[in-house]
Design a protein that fits this description.
The longest helix is centred in the middle third of the chain and has 87 residues. The N and C termini lie far apart (127 Å). The protein is mostly helical. The protein has one domain. It is 73% helix and 0% strand.
Length: 139
């Protein structure tokens, strides 16, 4: 004998409807009892997820800051190396100029004497062998 059929195999509609209604009411009662008790758990899980996201964001920010710091240090080191190279080149050129002072004087005399015919250069020797510039003559 079945719950839904009688002895002859006929389905009893009232039994089917009653079963559906009882199951539906049972589910509503079950959800009414479970949902309020689930809210704190759900809030805790949401809080844990937000905390994990905040921690991840903090770690990303720390890594980005560390990368910027490392980059700045390497750029500063590269700038120091470049400056050392320029200083070394300037020293080499300066030492070379000190050794070749007579040749530089010769080149300067050649340039002043006639390299450019369009200008007039008047050289007045001074104690330091520097020319006197008349910067305010045209004012």
């Amino acid at each position: 004998m079945s719950l839904y059929a009688d002895d002859e195999g006929n389905v009893k509609a009232g039994n089917v409807i009653l079963t559906i209604v009882v199951c539906t009411i049972g589910l509503f009662v079950l959800f009414a009892l479970i949902i309020p008790s689930m809210r704190p758990w759900w809030a805790e899980q949401t809080g844990k997820a937000e905390l994990a996201q905040a921690e991840q964001n903090r770690q990303i920010a720390v890594k980005e800051a560390q990368a910027k710091k490392d980059s700045a240090i390497l750029l500063a080191e590269a700038e120091v190396r470049r400056a050392e190279g320029v200083a070394s080149a300037n020293k080499i050129i300066g030492d070379s100029l000190k050794e070749n002072e007579d040749y530089l004087r010769y080149l300067w005399i050649i340039d002043v004497a006639g390299a450019n015919v369009d200008k007039t250069v008047v050289y007045v020797p001074t104690e330091t062998n520097l020319p006197i510039l008349e910067a305010t003559r045209n004012k």
